[in-house]
Design goal:
By secondary structure, this protein is α/β, with parallel strands linked by helices. It is built from 23 helices and 31 strands. Strands 7-6-14-8-9-13-10-12-11-15-16 form an 11-stranded mixed sheet, sandwiched between helices. A 7-stranded mixed sheet has the order 28-29-25-24-23-30-31, sandwiched between helices. The structure holds zinc ion (3 copies). One zinc ion binds next to helix 4.
Length: about 750
């Protein structure tokens, strides 16, 4: 019998063909296996039926760790007897199937780590040691099929040793496109901040020493540059904060080992598992009582973003020093994408860092580290990028149309929805400037190309002025695609529905800002989502509060607090007392009072983020938002230390609107009497109670069984856990995001879902 088998999934670059070779030989079959141009694999097996059946079983059961099979299609062919043995054929150029994809970058495997440490191994101390089970993929691939000449490894022809392993079907490095050694592979070198090279025999370990001594070094990795320095010394951190225009935004750190992490942070089982997964994300961990790293790493927060080493290079950094961890933050100027090219790094980082640790392999596609948080036992993606992108999110149902979602404005990603698979791009960032815009375009093109998608509909935000809205309009015109605009919170809710394959849902959608269908600033919404037109309906929301000074009210949360409190309580004196917290001092507070008196404000917001911001300002926790979500995150940090709902307020709901003024007012009145932590906690409890009550009411009214929580605020653990408790107590199911970030990193997915499923 002769059987042609086509397999789709994540099967290129994960040792799939050698695996097929081994099981074919084991089952005494002849024929071939080859990569198809779109990341699928074609197998032809010739032999007796029994052996072929056993081969098919092995194919499903014993596949390599990193391989993910989506589909296996078989077809009988009449070519019996034409093959002398089983071979791995050269890749085919044609694009035959679509929807397969290459794997994400994978952390160094244990075998490679052992070889790195073994003196007699030819790859001893080789910083970029890899095999078919580990190493970079997505960041080095220019185009499919995944062959060396289509990757940035094409500049490094294999030496005879590497070649012998590459060609040996029984070797771990058989057809490993990243195979390299100190003789033939990428080289590493240390330079001054001006790029003059410094000759060291062991530049990586030398870098470790420099970091330990308090120098700042830009280190080139798989998907871009990191800026690294000590986690103990304040001085370099001060310098970094000044140079990176990051007053307060937390820096991620890389720790030597899990045991060491436990010396400064608490790590539960799920967190440990996540830290050690081959995807090696940054995990936000609660600082322990004995936290001893510099306070400048994540100022004012209860947690710190930690990851473990994921390349040979990272492990070697720690060899000659005793530091528990190094700062390892993405190297990007404010609002720009992570730096990936050597020249760009010299130009943009030369004034910030003391040294560069370069290697001479190009980065085809930049990719930031992923960030996760664990709520109880649930994984929450803060940022889904390295280790995950571009692996598809599998849906239960097939989309009617091939759709592209372009996301919103901040923390952006793009998403291609094809059939049952949603391919979410790596983290793109804030799409306000040219560099990020270009990055978005490139990442989108690459995603369409890699997946062989033929886009039919493009989905973007409802905001008329968003950059992504304009790009979507142009792309739709150029390519004759259908274009739809999806309201921000509708997209969040659509994402939840698709992830859980729900017919209907009541979505609690909280975040900072989304353009509402009435043109106002939404951000604390209860939305009914269904599969029938009009699909989404706003059925409740937080009380509208004036947003005075637009962006200024977001940046300086005292403004938000003042406008909520105004007319309810005397605030003049309180404002004067805090005058120095306003950029223009007393003058600005007077002007603000006048605006409030004369009701000179054009816009209202229902944002949950703004309410949390206002409370953070009233409780003197945060006066200026220097990064997205800062006041709310710091408020949560304070609330986590609180224990009691000291306000015990009953949520006041009128006409489907949850009153927020009374709670803010109570906090203001009690700010000096009661504990700050308890007040911060009480604010969370009030919002959770109020939102849950409203959502449950709407669920019962509409006969809906699921209540979901989405939007950036869903990263908040206290709110998420309290909402769950109340909703489940009411006998309803509570759902959160499992595969995409609840924040705007998941927005493109929701938009694509609306485009793919709900357009005619
Ligand atoms: Zn390996
Ligand atoms: Zn070699
Ligand atoms: Zn949002």
């Amino acid at each position: 019998m002769c059987l042609k088998i086509r397999v789709t999934g994540i099967i290129q670059g994960v040792g799939f063909r050698p695996f097929v070779y081994r099981i074919a030989v084991k089952n005494k079959l002849k024929g071939y296996v080859k990569n198809l141009g779109d990341a699928g694999v074609e197998i032809l097996v010739d032999g007796n039926e029994e052996n072929i059946q056993s081969f098919l079983q092995d194919l499903k059961k014993e596949k390599p760790l990193l391989a993910q099979i989506h589909e296996i299609m078989t077809e009988k062919v009449s070519r019996r007897g034409r093959f002398a043995d089983f071979v791995i054929r050269k890749s085919s150029r044609e694009k035959e199937l679509s929807g397969s994809v290459i794997p994400p970058d994978i952390a160094i495997c244990n075998e490679c780590l052992k070889e790195l440490r073994k003196h007699e191994d030819p790859r001893h101390d080789y910083f970029f040691i890899t095999c078919t089970n580990c190493g970079p993929r997505y960041t080095i691939i220019y185009k499919l099929p995944y062959d060396r000449e289509n990757t940035t490894m094409r500049n490094f022809p294999m030496c005879s040793f590497c070649k012998s392993q590459y060609q040996n079907p029984l070797d771990r490095r058989f057809h490993a496109q990243t195979v390299a050694c100190p003789i033939c592979g990428p080289q590493i070198y240390l330079t001054t901040s001006k790029g003059e090279s410094i000759n060291y025999k062991d530049p990586v370990r030398e870098t470790g020493k420099l970091l330990s001594e308090g120098f700042i070094v830009a280190i080139k990795g798989y998907g871009g540059f990191h800026i690294a320095t000590s986690t103990i010394e304040d001085k370099p951190l001060f310098k970094l904060r000044k140079a990176k225009f990051r007053k307060q935004k937390p820096f991620a750190i890389m720790a030597r080992s899990l045991e060491v992490i436990r010396t400064f942070a608490t790590v539960n089982l799920k967190e440990a598992e996540t830290l050690m997964a081959y995807t090696r994300p940054i995990v936000l961990l609660n600082k322990s009582e004995k936290y001893y790293l510099s306070d400048l790493i994540s100022p004012g927060l209860h947690n710190v973003g930690v990851m473990l080493p994921y390349t040979g290079l990272h492990y070697m950094l720690f060899d000659k020093v005793s530091d528990p961890a190094f700062v390892m933050t993405s190297a990007n100027p404010p609002n720009q994408p992570i730096i990936k090219d050597n020249n760009e790094a010299l130009k943009k980082l030369g004034n910030t860092v003391d040294y560069f640790l370069f290697h001479n392999r190009k980065i085809a596609h930049r990719c930031d580290d992923s960030v996760m948080r664990i709520h109880n036992k649930n994984l929450v993606y803060i940022r889904r990028s390295r280790g995950y992108a571009p692996a598809p999110i599998m849906l239960k149902e097939k989309a009617q149309k091939c759709a592209l979602g372009l996301g919103g404005e901040l923390n952006n990603t793009a998403c291609v929805l094809l059939g049952k698979k949603a391919f979410l791009s790596q983290h793109i960032g804030d799409v306000e400037n040219v560099e990020t815009r270009e990055f978005l375009k490139k990442a989108t093109e690459h995603l369409i190309d890699l997946t062989g998608s033929k886009i039919e509909v493009i989905a973007c935000d409802l905001h008329p002025k968003f950059t992504t809205t304009k790009i979507a309009r142009n792309l739709a015109d150029q390519n004759h695609w259908q274009r739809i605009q999806v309201q921000h919170h509708y997209a969040h809710v659509a994402a939840l529905m698709a992830e859980h394959n729900l017919e209907e849902i009541i979505g609690i959608c909280c975040d900072g800002y989304g353009y509402g269908v009435d043109g106002e600033a939404w951000g604390g919404e209860i939305i009914l989502g269904t599969r029938e037109a009009p699909y989404f309906k706003r059925v409740g929301h937080l009380e509208k509060q004036p947003l005075i000074g637009g962006d200024k009210a977001t940046r300086y949360p005292l403004r938000m607090a003042a406008s909520i409190l105004h007319k309810k309580v005397e605030i003049q004196e309180w404002l004067s007392h805090h005058a120095k917290r306003f950029p223009y001092g007393e003058k600005e507070t007077q002007l603000l009072m006048q605006q409030l008196e004369k009701k000179r404000y054009a816009i209202y917001t229902t944002s949950c983020g703004r309410i949390l911001d206002a409370i953070a300002a009233i409780l003197e926790i945060c006066y200026e938002r220097t990064y997205e979500g800062e006041p709310a995150m710091k408020l949560e940090a304070a609330a986590i230390r609180g224990e009691n709902d000291v306000l015990k307020l009953k949520p006041e709901i009128n006409d489907n609107v949850l009153n927020t003024t009374q709670m803010v007012l109570e906090i203001f009145k009690n700010r000096k009497k009661l504990s700050r932590a308890d007040l911060a906690y009480s604010a969370h409890v009030y919002l959770a109670k109020g939102l849950a009550t409203l959502a449950i009411e709407k669920a019962l009214e509409n006969g809906v069984k699921h209540v979901g929580f989405s939007g950036g605020t869903a990263c908040n653990e206290i709110l998420a856990l309290n909402l769950r408790k109340i909703v489940e107590k009411a006998g309803l199911k509570f759902v959160i995001h499992k595969a995409v970030p609840p924040g705007d990193g998941g927005l493109s997915f929701g938009q694509a879902v609306v485009g793919g499923f709900l357009t005619i």
